[in-house]
């Protein structure tokens, strides 16, 4: 039997290199869960509960703590992405799909950072303690003495961006991300197995 006639042998290590690392998988699903919890929690205490009620204040404190926890996990995820590079996209994808996948990933990372950072800025501008699981989280530096009409205008603008703009952009990007993953799962370029450990490799 010559070399060209030799049977193809599956390379387990090669398959593992095309999966995301265990750290990346754990962070991906934890952050995804926190984002959906945060969106639901934010809607509930803003729309369903009376303003400035004890129930609203309590849920808002949890929302803030979860948001700061998400920020820490996202920073760890970004660092781990540089230490453990993501696997390559499936072979044979059109160039425009490669470009779109990379663009959506980059924008998702930016949005995942922008949401908790804008929330942190919003709370800093209120000059009130920032709760973090029973302790006070530090305010953003350089804004402690900021006050007056310009302060109120900036605080309102940051709140508007955080609540009414970034959330909807994030939901749109998440929708694109999910749609792309589902599309590839059924067009002979499956990708879900790379992020779901119990799915068999099909790449």
Q: How would you describe this structure to a colleague?
A:
The protein has helices at 12-17, 22-47, 54-83, 95-125, 149-185, 192-195; strands at residues 130-132, 135-137. It is mostly helical and 203 residues long. It has a single domain (19-195), classed as Transmembrane di-heme cytochromes, Chain C (Fumarate Reductase Cytochrome B subunit), CATH 1.20.950. The chain has a two-stranded antiparallel sheet with strand order 1-2. The model is unreliable at 1-16 (pLDDT under 50).
Low-confidence stretches: 1-16
- How many beta-strand elements? 2
Helix tally? 6
* Shape label: elongated
As a whole number of angstroms, the C-alpha radius of gyration is 22 Å
Provide the number of structural domains: 1
Order of SSEs:
HHHHEEHH
Give the neighbour order of strands across the main sheet.
1-2
> What's the name of the CATH homologous superfamily?
Transmembrane di-heme cytochromes, Chain C
CATH architecture label name:
Up-down Bundle
CATH topology: Fumarate Reductase Cytochrome B subunit
List the helices and strands and how they pair.
Blueprint: H1 12-17, H2 22-47, H3 54-83, H4 95-125, E1 130-132, E2 135-137, H5 149-185, H6 192-195
Antiparallel strand pairs: 1-2
Would you summarize the structure shown here?
The chain is an all-alpha fold.
State the main characteristics.
203 residues; Fumarate Reductase Cytochrome B subunit; 6 helices
């Amino acid at each position: 039997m010559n070399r060209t006639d030799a049977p193809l042998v599956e390379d387990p290590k090669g398959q593992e290199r095309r999966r995301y690392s265990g750290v990346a998988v754990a962070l991906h699903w934890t952050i995804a869960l926190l984002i959906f919890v945060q969106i639901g929690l934010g809607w509930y205490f803003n729309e369903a509960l009376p303003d400035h009620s004890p129930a609203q204040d309590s849920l808002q404190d949890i929302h803030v703590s979860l948001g700061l926890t998400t920020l820490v996990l996202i920073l760890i995820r970004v660092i781990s992405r540089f230490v453990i590079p993501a696997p390559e996209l499936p072979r044979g994808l059109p160039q425009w799909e490669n470009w779109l996948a990379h663009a959506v990933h980059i924008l998702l990372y930016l949005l995942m950072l922008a949401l908790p950072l804008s929330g942190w800025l919003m709370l800093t501008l209120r000059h009130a303690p920032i709760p973090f699981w029973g302790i006070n989280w530090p305010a953003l530096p350089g804004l402690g003495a900021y006050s007056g009409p310009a302060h109120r205008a900036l605080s309102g603008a940051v709140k508007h961006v955080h609540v009414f703009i970034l959330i909807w952009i994030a939901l749109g990007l998440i929708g694109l991300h999910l749609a792309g993953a589902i599309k590839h799962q059924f067009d002979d370029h499956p990708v879900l197995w790379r992020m779901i450990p119990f799915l068999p490799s099909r790449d």
